[in-house]
Automatic annotation (TrEMBL):
Name listed for the protein in its UniProt record: Deoxyribodipyrimidine photo-lyase
Pfam families named in the record: DPRP
PANTHER family per UniProt: SLR1343 PROTEIN
Coiled coil feature spans: none
SUPFAM superfamilies cross-referenced by the UniProt entry: Cryptochrome/photolyase FAD-binding domain (SSF48173)
InterPro entries for the chain: Crypto/Photolyase_FAD-like_sf, PhrB-like, Rossmann-like_a/b/a_fold, UV-DNA_repair_photolyase
Length: 486
């Protein structure tokens, strides 16, 4: 007889079962929300997905205080996505743990690729994974003759239009399960003292397999063709651009990343999407997503505490509490409002507006990682660690990226329409209209010059730094600005 499969809340799709008829155990624990303040919409999405799943097939949903209490029969479980959950599974009697699912490459593949390398770089891993899984390949060569179309995918937003103009994904229609979740969350806030951050709002992301498949279909048909060129661009009035918005669904396990990239490749092969879009998109999933997943395990438990840049400052309350209205800098205010209102912004706001600001100010990388984890609907420990500690805060001293993602206002001005109408001037680093990103950029470089001087990718910025005749004044200004909202 097939053992019941215990599914964690991020393992909800059919690829976590051995057969569609396999009996399932789901555990809903309120205690998770007591430990940390999560975004209200994230709590809603996860609970809604879990409870929707409980309606499908032979499922036992146990509402319990602890997992140990809930798992009272022999079960199998796919390798969980966090160390804490894995250790728990190991401690429970009569739970058999299977290899992880929900990613494309296996841990063994990754270790084979990584062992013996000094630097782990996405580009190398991605090429390995493309070959290994025969994705966008023509024999031994990449289709179109190039592995990397990033150079085609860095265009600024269209000038003079507030939106990119791609069809928006169809809105989600909430049902009575969503209503029930909302009522429960309201009650927990009122009666149990559970605290959330961010605004409640209509559910924006899929909670069921059917909703997730519909979103995937819509993306591949209508948005993938536009995905590539403007991938890095931001428009104040268009939070979605041509991004897929699929991360919450993939991370909940509602979609198998393999089916997602297969559909994207098919769209390209059928002539329905250009190579730059399909390649750029597949790179995010087969490349980045699998890469950061493996790095979470490969770098080990101490990686999360890495702090090579000695950044110890606490997050100021206006940032921690998503108080966008306290911020005058248009980009940061707009992005923080996006997090508050949707629990989601796309990659460049995360990296170049939020992460960049935090790194410039010397905020504690672990606290920044924790903040991202709690505030984003797609945030999970495994995905946070490498993305925040490594990529965005450079707290690992370059183990996974070749330079810190620090940038001043001129980058933001080129890649977005935020600077127009902002009270700060991206070209100005000193005085009342000094852009906090521009001033913060120079202050960051000055603070870390000794550590960064060996990095050839920073040679030019560091030369520029040495030529600044007002650096002392900029540093004094940034010191005085402290942690107040810009
Ligand atoms: P698209 O642009 O449409 O990309 C397609 C898919 O690729 C995404 O759905 C996602 O599954 C995957 N992907 C792309 N980049 C990454 C990446 N760097 N790491 C992992 N998967 C990736 N992604 C999360 O899923 N959860 C997070 O909590 C998260 N936090 C981040 C924090 C920081 C500081 C940074 C810089 C990046 C973070 N990312 C995170 C990665 C990325 O920003 C999001 O996956 C992406 O913005 C989700 O939107 P989308 O589905 O429209 O992505």
């Amino acid at each position: 007889r097939m053992r019941r499969r215990w599914l964690f809340a991020d393992q909800l799709g059919p690829h976590f079962l051995d057969s569609p008829r396999q009996p399932v155990l789901l555990v809903e624990s309120k205690a998770v929300f007591r430990r940390r303040a999560f975004h209200r919409q994230k709590a809603h999405l996860v609970l809604s997905a879990l409870r929707h799943r409980a309606q499908e097939g032979d499922v036992r949903l146990v509402q319990a205080r602890t997992y140990a209490e809930a798992v009272d029969e022999p079960v199998t479980v796919c390798h969980p996505t966090s160390r804490a959950a894995r250790d728990l599974v190991r401690r429970l009697p009569d739970v058999r743990m299977l290899p992880p699912r929900g990613f494309i490459t296996t841990p063994q593949d990754f270790v084979t690729w990584a062992d013996g390398r000094d630097h782990l770089r996405l580009e190398d891993f991605y090429r390995y994974a493309r070959r290994h899984h025969d994705v966008l390949m023509e024999g031994a060569e990449p289709v179109g003759g190039r592995w990397n179309l990033d150079a085609d995918n860095r265009e600024p937003p269209p000038r003079g239009s507030a939106r990119l103009g791609v069809p928006e994904p169809p809105a989600i229609v909430e049902d009575e399960i969503d209503d029930q979740v909302r009522a429960d969350l309201d009650r927990w806030e009122r009666e149990d003292g559970i605290v959330f951050v961010g605004a409640d709002g209509p559910r924006l992301f899929p909670a069921t397999r059917a909703e997730a498949l519909a979103r995937l279909r819509h993306f591949v048909d209508h948005r993938l063709p536009e995905f590539g060129p403007r991938e890095d661009a931001m428009l104040a009035a268009d939070p979605w651009m041509a991004h897929s918005l699929l991360s919450p669904a993939i991370n909940l396990g509602l979609l198998d990343p393999l089916e997602v990239i297969e559909q994207a490749e098919r769209a390209y092969r059928d002539g329905n999407a250009p190579l730059a879009g399909a390649e750029g998109f597949i790179r995010q999933i087969l490349g980045w997503r699998d890469f950061v997943w493996h790095l979470y395990w490969y770098f080990g438990p101490h990686y999360r505490a890495a702090d090579e840049l000695q950044a110890h400052r606490e997050l100021p309350a206006w940032f921690a509490d998503l108080d966008a209205d306290a911020v005058e800098a248009r980009c940061l205010s707009g992005v923080l409002a996006g997090v508050r209102d949707r629990g989601w912004v796309h990659h460049i706001p995360r990296l170049m507006v939020l992460g960049n600001y935090a790194m410039q100010r010397g905020w504690s990388p672990a606290a920044v990682a924790d903040w991202f984890h709690r505030c984003f609907v797609d945030g999970y420990e495994w995905v946070m660690t490498a993305n925040v500690i490594g990529m965005s805060q450079y707290a690992d001293g370059g183990r996974m990226s070749s330079k810190p993602y620090a940038a001043g206002g001129s980058y933001l001005n080129r890649m977005s329409d935020y600077c127009r109408g902002c009270r700060y001037d991206p070209k100005v680093r000193l005085g009342a209209n000094a852009c906090p990103y521009t001033a913060g950029y120079w202050a960051f470089l000055a603070r870390h010059e000794p550590q960064l001087s060996g990095n050839h990718r920073l040679r030019r910025p560091l030369q520029g730094l040495r030529r600044l005749d007002d650096l002392d004044a900029v540093l004094a200004q940034e010191q005085a600005r402290g942690s107040s909202a810009p």
